[in-house]
Write a structure and sequence with these properties.
The chain is mainly α. The chain contains six helices and two strands; from the N terminus they run H-H-E-H-H-H-E-H. It has helices spanning about 10-35, 50-55, 60-70, 100-105, 115-135, 145-150, and strands at about 60, 140.
């Protein structure tokens, strides 16, 4: 992947506008597939504490464009990839509607663990097909690379850490 694949600001707004509809359909179908399996969410916040629980959230450029355009401002300062800036102090996601595919398929419910890889692969393949069909940049990279680029381009203004944080 090249830095150009990470979607400079001049193209991010139009990419978000183009991708919003197709991603909403894909996300809706994924959410329905997940709901049929009935995982439980204990609001543990593990999904957003990447470093602590040993995972990295990857997303494509179209997903990042829609997330940055549609999610409310992050509630936490950006870090080096340790946590999600949209996780509030109670461990809840504040970007729930705009969250990418990787967030939608992640549950710490042990019963769901056997289903997550299959769903992830299936919907990631479908996402890639949509991206290829529309000739959008793929730019599959960790969340924090997309966010750092968005900050550099002036598309995202994360909150400044308070003295008491």
């Amino acid at each position: 992947m090249s830095p150009e694949d990470l979607n400079p600001q001049s193209e991010a707004s139009s990419l978000a506008a183009e991708a919003r509809g197709p991603l909403a359909i894909l996300y809706g179908e994924l959410d329905a597939a997940v709901a049929r399996l009935g995982p439980t969410c204990a609001v543990s916040g593990r999904c957003c504490r990447f470093e602590e629980y040993g995972h990295t959230l990857f997303l494509s450029s179209p997903e990042a464009a829609v997330l940055i355009a549609d999610a409310p401002a992050p509630v936490r300062a950006l870090d080096a990839g340790l946590t999600c800036p949209w996780q509030d102090e109670k461990g809840r996601c504040t970007a729930r509607e705009a969250r990418p595919l990787g967030c939608r398929v992640y549950f710490c419910d042990p019963v769901f663990q056997e289903h997550a890889p299959r769903l992830s692969e299936e919907f990631l393949s479908r996402l890639k097909a949509i991206v290829d069909q529309h000739e959008w940049p793929w730019g599959y990279a960790p969340l924090h690379r997309h966010l750092a680029l968005a900050v550099d381009c002036g598309e995202l203004s994360p909150p400044v850490p308070s003295e008491h944080a």
